[in-house]
Amino acid sequence: MSAELIIGGSSVRRGERQIIELPLPPLTTYTSLHMPVHVIRGRKNGPRLLVCAALHGDEINGVEIIRRLVTHPALAKMRGDLVAIPIVNVYGFIHQIRYLPDRRDLNRSFPGSETGSMAARLAALFLNEVVSKCTHGIDLHTAAIHRDNLPQVRACLNDPATCQMANAFPVSVLLDAALRPGTIREAAGKLGIPWIVYEAGEALRFDEVSIRAGVRGIVQVMREIGMLSKRKINKPYVPQVASRSYWVRAPRSGIYRSILPMGAHVSRGDLLGLINDPYGGTDEKIHAPSSGIIIGRTNLPLVYEGDALCHIAQFRHASDVASVVEAFQSEFEVVFDDSTMDDFDAPIM
Asked: How many other C-beta atoms can be found within 10 angstroms of the C-beta atom of residue 185?
């Protein structure tokens, strides 16, 4: 990495720390808007890691993860550079919605175009001004509105550098996920940048387990790629790789009642939930088509025919994964009382 890093026309030298206000198109009221970019540079050369959140404006867990990350005491001895963007889609964040004002999905708009739609222009700006100048990337997401995700990492595990990052992140489940057209992960892959996605929690909600695991995961990745000194840690579990995953969808409209919790192990034929009408009609039972682990589900009881109800990941030995999920939950779970309120900003080493 060079001695000078320039983002949005602002220069940051080694050993310096800045918040760069990357200019964005103004609001229709002509109010100016910026994307805040934290740039923290170590005194010694090393990798340049980008951590970004809220590409979807309502996915706010990552915003809190980055808030805690940039104050982490370990960064004082960091090698290389950390570029952290808590809110990429500022427009969606302001309005608490997933999309941009042009109703497009930013994470389906890469690599973008400087003369295209608003989404395309923002994608091009982000890719050219920030992503292309980094050596590694971590993208923080949650499930969509009214859905929940078990903390998980999605990545192309056939790439050795990407696989190294994914396995360093302390989650119970890894999804070997193919690149999707238009995503930042695909665009970064074409630039040769190892990239992983951390999915955890629900849109517009903070989840403390997901946040604590996210901070720990990023720090562990930084240790793994040489930005921070490695520490010998006795892992209570090893992340399990899913061979595939699928959504169970509603066969009819109605009121859905989920039976099993997130992270539960299911066998083929197990009851996942029931759908009935609002007037006390006959229940329709929803069964698992195959064995696996519940890694996502809807939190909204009101469903239409075809709606996604339950996301199930398949493993060679799904019953073994259930104990790994339990160990993960136990490690990051917080009991809320007066004695733990000060722990929210405590560093997760």
From this structure: 23
Contact (Cβ atoms closer than 8 angstroms) between residue 42 and residue 5? no
Strands in 271-276's sheet, in edge-to-edge order, are: 284-287, 271-276, 254-258, 302-303
- Which contiguous run of DSSP H or E holds residue 38? strand 33-41
Nearest partner of 222 among 125, 349, 110, 57, judged by Cα? 349
Q: Report the DSSP beta bridge partners of residue 141.
A: 199
Report the chain's terminal Cα–Cα distance, integer Å.
26
Residue 272 pLDDT grade (very low, low, confident, very high; cuts 50, 70, 90): very high
Residue 336 has pLDDT above 70, yes or no: no
- Alpha carbon dihedral 338, 65, 21, 19, in 10-degree steps, equals 70
Identify the bridge partners of residue 48 per DSSP, sorted by sequence position. 81
Predicted pLDDT of residue 341: 44
Mean pLDDT of all residues in 308-333: 87
State how far the Cα of 250 lies from the Cα of 212, in Å rounded to an integer. 33
Both tokens assigned to 183: 């995503």
Distance CA 130, CA 22 (A): 10
Residues 6+ positions from 260 with CB-CB distance below 8 Å? 266, 270, 271, 272, 273, 294
DSSP string, 243-300: SEEEEEE-SS-EEEEE-S-TT-EE-TT-EEEEEE-TTS---EEEE-SS-EEEEEEE--
Looking at residue 342, what is its pLDDT?
Answer: 47
* Residue 194 confidence class, pLDDT cut points 50, 70, 90: very high
Q: Which two tokens stand for residue 197?
A: 């996605």
Largest CA distance in the chain: 69
Mean pLDDT of 325-341: 71
Q: Which two tokens stand for residue 224?
A: 């793994």
Q: Which amino acid is at 109?
A: S
Please list, in sequence order, all residues whose beta carbon lies within 8 angstroms of the beta carbon of residue 309, skipping any fewer than 6 positions away: 247, 248, 249, 250, 256, 258, 272, 273, 286, 297, 298, 303
Query: Which two structure tokens, joined as six digits, stand for 172?
Result: 């119970």
